[in-house]
Q: What sequence folds into this?
């Protein structure tokens, strides 16, 4: 799966969980500051991403996922 | 074998109302943030009332509505994690004040899931023939274990008590309390704790949220299955009142389209072991659930512990 495909998948999740406009989703965007995803929505994003990308994202890893790019890299190397 | 059923309910909340704006005056928070993250608008905070005082008030109301008298009660079980006094336990204090002469009296501490644990324990005692009429109470004074300088936790909790009177069902009568599904995740217990001295509530919000919204729905469905009730027939769902977003997250994973969903958290905050009987008592008082209808109770939280069962609405 390419980085662009992962971004597209994350954008779908972000739209469903937190109402984020898919056009706003890009690697450098911060979940909290740019996309307005709060800490609990972030958990929902992570749970949905685990299912979609067949990857485990433990609780202690969630706090390291600051930007969309962080999440893409984590999924890319762990899926 | 005879089962048991809930005859009546009662609840008590302290008179002092604390709004989100009141809290914004003492810590850096605001009404919008609290409503958005946890869904709480107000909570009640006790001044002089103790856990036993609130438990006695709630149990007294339930007993008065039951048609039974103190002399009929042979068991008192109190779910609490915030009682300061260790001995005599809260159950004995309540029994003495209600004039219950010689009951089996015990406190059960499984934090927020406590009421469902206590309800199951009393139901089991009745099934075993060790009790005939029991009072089960959830009572918490969380304001005693709240760090009022911690904005991440002090906005969450409230004080309250709720109680139910149980009686043995007659031979051939359907049991009114279904089999309990209970358990815990002790390996992750430290994400929500009240420990040490002087103890304060500590929680890792994201970890608790994740556990609650992913692990619990299948267990709640198991409680329906064990009771022989289709989830689509559930008339009301009364989960522990911790966060409206947790409640919504669980409901999304249950197929309960015909259920009234208890959201007493909006007005009462998180009252730990008191939240389920408090919310159930209010639903019944407002006649939102018909008598005899199946209600799914599900407690979860500190520890981490959980317990749930389907009960017939009194």
A:
């Amino acid at each position: 799966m390419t980085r662009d495909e992962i971004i597209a998948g994350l954008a779908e999740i972000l739209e469903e969980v937190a109402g984020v406009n898919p056009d706003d989703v890009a690697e450098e965007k911060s979940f909290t500051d740019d996309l307005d995803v709060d800490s609990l929505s972030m958990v929902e994003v992570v749970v949905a991403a685990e299912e979609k990308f067949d990857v485990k994202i433990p609780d202690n890893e969630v706090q390291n996922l600051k930007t969309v790019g962080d999440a893409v890299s984590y999924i890319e190397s762990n899926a | 074998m005879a089962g048991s059923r809930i005859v009546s309910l009662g609840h008590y909340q302290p008179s002092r109302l604390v709004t989100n704006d009141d809290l914004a005056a003492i810590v850096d928070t605001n009404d919008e943030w609290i409503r958005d993250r946890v869904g709480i608008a107000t909570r009640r905070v006790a001044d002089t009332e103790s856990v036993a005082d609130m438990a006695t008030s709630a149990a007294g109301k339930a007993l008065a509505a039951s048609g039974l008298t103190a002399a009929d009660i042979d068991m008192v079980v109190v779910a609490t994690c915030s009682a300061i006094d260790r001995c005599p336990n809260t159950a004995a204090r309540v029994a003495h004040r209600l004039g219950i002469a010689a009951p089996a009296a015990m406190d059960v501490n499984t934090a927020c899931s406590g009421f469902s644990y206590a309800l199951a324990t009393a139901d089991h005692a009745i099934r075993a023939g060790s009790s005939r009429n029991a009072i089960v109470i959830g009572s918490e004074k969380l304001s005693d274990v709240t760090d009022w300088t911690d904005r991440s936790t002090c906005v969450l909790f409230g004080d309250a008590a709720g109680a139910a009177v149980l009686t043995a069902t007659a031979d051939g009568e359907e049991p009114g309390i279904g089999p309990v599904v209970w358990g815990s995740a002790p390996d992750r217990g430290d994400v929500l704790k009240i420990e040490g001295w002087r103890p304060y509530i500590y929680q890792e919000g994201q970890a608790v949220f994740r556990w609650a919204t992913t692990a619990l729905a299948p267990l709640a469905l198991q409680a329906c299955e064990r009771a022989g009730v289709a989830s689509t027939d559930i008339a009301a769902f009364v989960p522990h009142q911790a966060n409206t977003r947790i409640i919504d997250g669980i409901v999304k994973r249950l197929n309960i389209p015909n259920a009234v969903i208890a959201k007493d958290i909006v007005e009462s905050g998180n009252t730990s072991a008191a939240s389920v009987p408090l919310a159930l008592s209010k639903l019944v008082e407002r006649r939102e659930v018909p008598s005899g209808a199946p209600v799914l109770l599900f407690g979860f939280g500190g520890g981490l512990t959980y317990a749930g069962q389907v009960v017939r609405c009194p």
